Amino acid sequence: MTTKILGGVASAPMVHETNIEGIFSGRVRFEEAAPVFNHPLYLIGFTNRCGSNLLAGYLRSTPAFDGFYEQLNHDTVGARLPKLHAETFPDYLRAISQNHPGNGKMIGFKASWDQLRMLLRWRIDRMYEGGIRMIHISRENLIEQAVSWSIAFQTKQWTSQENALAAAVYDESDIDLRLSYIMQSNQNMGYLLALSGIPSLPVRYSDICRDPAAVVRSIGAFADVDLQTWEPGASEIRKQGGDMNKEFVARYIREKSHAIGFAPHQTTILSSPMSVL
Length: 277
Description:
277 residues, globular, 12 helices
């Protein structure tokens, strides 16, 4: 029963944990008695295509935060390491935070559920006074998110700053797979947060699109910093969703609801806000 409850959270180390451990030849745990940083580590907990890059851009534009890139990805660690001369993973985190042009801002990272588990296993929370604090962003409409991910994976256009390298086609099985992964990842993240007792702030993508200032102010309150006067400027990235997203979402809803045995309301298909990243 315990194994069934834990599910993926109790699984073997995944790609980032395995490869980063290999990069540092196992020297990945923080073993010092005192914290290195005098503030908590703020993470944006994310799944693919949930709006995390949009949120990260807004947070970087505040006087309190910087970073929130994917510095915990194994390929990023491997690429940056030669210039940092870090011998351990804690050294790497110290180097990228201290070398970052943040002008005294708190440097945060993006983290998937398995990267959060990796940080906890390696005692990285002990590096930060106040431990880890999580800003967990998610989307209400998981079908839109899965369709967006399927399209981006095929085109290789992950943000509006990039050009599409290929065309996308409707692939029901691919959307199914990505939808299942999103749901499992959100569940794993919630379970880890509950298990670890890490303070977390849930953020909805639709709220960011509707009122980014209100969302950022709530994050400021969560972090005990005053962001009441912050106002959004031009975003670093634009929303990407268009007619193809709408077409694929409508087709998926129509075909899946028919297979289950009911007909969706037409307004369900046509009125959903397609602010898709």
